[in-house]
Structures are given as structure tokens and as C-alpha cells.
Amino acid sequence: AQSVTQPDIHITVSEGASLELRCNYSYGATPYLFWYVQSPGQGLQLLLKYFSGDTLVQGIKGFEAEFKRSQSSFNLRKPSVHWSDAAEYFCAVSPRGSARQLTFGSGTQLTVLP
Amino acid sequence: AAGVIQSPRHLIKEKRETATLKCYPIPRHDTVYWYQQGPGQDPQFLISFYEKMQSDKGSIPDRFSAQQFSDYHSELNMSSLELGDSALYFCASSLVQRMNTEAFFGQGTRLTVV
């Protein structure tokens, strides 16, 4: 069975600082990996996804993530954080060709200081 | 662009009552997924339907049932509600026929059981 670990429950950064959110996965084959963002009381919005090919994936809102098979990681990065980025971020893995039966990590709450 | 529509957005029920949540997928999407997100928890996969047939089953209680109709909308029926059923229920849809597709999430239905 697949699993996802997000080691950081809560991260605080200053506006304009860089950001890296960690995600480690466990899955026997090539995973399909996703990062979602959830603002308070809102649904899940897809930031980016990795299925195959280039291991550095560009997403929306200036986010990127790098798939590292050797480390079983899919960390999310942003060079300069904006106050509007404050939200909860979920890493997720899916075992199949489409986004079926996503398994989510426990999430990382991001606080942005002015 | 049309998104996944869930209704109602908020629902308050008493213990032992019944609730029905509705999900209208993105037009031409053939697959619907239901997720449950408890307070402070990550979303947990409940069940999915492909072309009106159940395709995957996750941690859905026996008190819950779901179906997908001919117009592809889906309903999650929850009976004998318990306080622990209070959660945000997400519906997502995707087009499985397309490779490397992703799931698009609705804004969720917040169910409060009192």
C-alpha cells in the first residue's frame, strides 16, 4: 500500500522568503505524485503533478516540485512566498495512471509573516 | 470553466438522522470520487465510480452508500449519523479515459452532526 509522509506539521516563513515543503512517499512502483493547496474552509486546488518525464515540475502560483526517486521525495518549493500563500498543503500519491484513490499526507500548515 | 459542484455546502443533522450529499462532476468527466476530511485530518478516500459502476472502495462505513446516476452526478447517502461523521466531504471528478489525468475537487460539503 502506498503512503505519504509530510514531516513538517507547521512551517512559518516571512513574506519574500523562500519555501520548501517536504514530502516522502512509499510505493513499490513509479508513483503519480501531486501537491494540493487548501485555504480555510475551501476545497483542494491542484498546484502541480508528476507522472513521468522531467523530474522538475512547474505548477501554478510560482510553485515547483522535484521528484527524487533515490530519496523517495517530492518536495515543493517556491523562491519567494507571498502572504496569500498561507494555507495548508497536501502531498498525495496515486497508484495508477489516473488520479484514483489518492492517498494524502497529513498536510503542512504554512503561516506567512508580514 | 465549469468545476465540480457540490450541494449543499453546509449541512447540520442530528444523531441518527440521514443525510444525502450531491456531486455534479465536470461535464464529460466519467469518474467521481468521494473523500472525507475530519477536523485537522487529511482527506480519506471513501469510494469512487466509473461509468456509473463502483470502481474503488476505501474506508467507507457500512452506514454510507453512494451511487452514480446516468447523468454522471453522484450522491453519498449517510444513515444513522454519528457525531464522528462531522467532517468536510469532498467530491472530485476526472476523465479516466485520458491518460495522466488528474482529479478536480469541489469545494466540499461541511457536515455537522449534533
> Could you name the ranges of chain B where pLDDT drops below 50 across 5 or more consecutive residues?
none
Q: Biggest interface and its residues per chain? A: A-B, 24 and 28 residues
| Unreliable stretches covering 5 or more consecutive residues of chain A | none
As a whole number of angstroms, the C-alpha radius of gyration of chain B is 13 Å
Q: What structural class is derived from the secondary structure elements of chain B? A: mainly beta
Count every helix of chain B, treating DSSP H or I runs of 4 or more residues as helices.
0
Mean pLDDT of chain B: 91
Largest sheet report of chain B: 7 strands, mixed
Helix content of chain A: under 10%
Overall outline of chain A: globular
The first-to-last residue Cα distance of chain B is 36 Å
Oligomer: heterodimer
Helix content of chain B: under 10%
Structural class of chain A: mainly beta
In what range is the share of β-strand residues of chain B? over 45%
Outline of chain B, from the CA principal axes? globular
Measured between the Cα atoms of the first and last residue of chain A, the distance is: 41 Å
Give the percentage of residues in beta strands of chain A. over 45%
**Secondary structure tally: strands of chain B:** 11
How would you spell out the order of helices and strands of chain A?
A: EEEEEEEEEEEE
The number of strands of chain A is 12
List the helices and strands and how they pair.
The complex is a heterodimer of chains A (114) and B (114).
Chain A: E1 3-5, E2 10-14, E3 19-21, E4 24-26, E5 32-38, E6 44-50, E7 56-58, E8 64-68, E9 73-78, E10 87-94, E11 103-104, E12 108-113
Parallel strand pairs in A: 2-12
Antiparallel strand pairs in A: 1-4, 3-9, 5-6, 5-10, 7-8, 8-9, 10-11, 10-12
Chain B: E1 5-7, E2 10-13, E3 19-24, E4 31-37, E5 44-50, E6 53-57, E7 64-68, E8 74-78, E9 87-94, E10 104-105, E11 109-113
Parallel strand pairs in B: 2-11
Antiparallel strand pairs in B: 1-3, 3-8, 4-5, 4-9, 5-6, 7-8, 9-10, 9-11
